[in-house]
Amino acid sequence: MASFSMEDFVGNGVLKGLLPKLLEEGWDDVPTLKIMNSEDMDAINMTQQQKNALGRRSYLHDRALMQYGDKLEASGKSLSELLSTSSLVLSSQFGMKRGHIARFLDRTNPCGFLMPPSHALSARKRIITPSTVKVLMEKM
Residue 114 above 90 pLDDT? Predict the structure, then answer.
């Protein structure tokens, strides 16, 4: 997945005006912004339209398809609506190339690789089991 500046990631849509607030609150790089959860979004008063835009752009970023971010956002369609759109419409209305359509519609694995199960949890969550606590206590 390509590296993007925050400005490139948010594009020219509804997230653009939110950029100063995001930076002020420490959401100052793309990987950090992509782990934002709904509580974080509510804390900075994101609208539903901005939340949808972030979800769409994160999905595109994971699949190295950011060049379609502004066009897809301008359509006003949700990610689920876009994923239900025909290949013909994605090509004619949004100018997607055939290979890009295949990557866009493949919801199983971003960019053609699978993450190991150990990475499936959000970076913000940790699970501590009783056995983990026991091991930690023994090391002290």
Answer: no
- Can you give the pLDDT at residue 122? 45
* CA dihedral sign of residues 71, 75, 80, 81: negative
Running DSSP on this structure, what letter comes out for residue 13? S
C-alpha R_g of the chain:
18
Q: Residue 91, class by beta-carbon neighbours within 10 Å (0-12 exposed, 13-18 middle, 19+ buried)?
A: middle
The secondary structure of residue 85, as a DSSP letter, is S
pTM, full prediction? 0.74
The span from the CA of 9 to the CA of 50, in Å, is 13
Domains in the chain: boundaries: 6-114
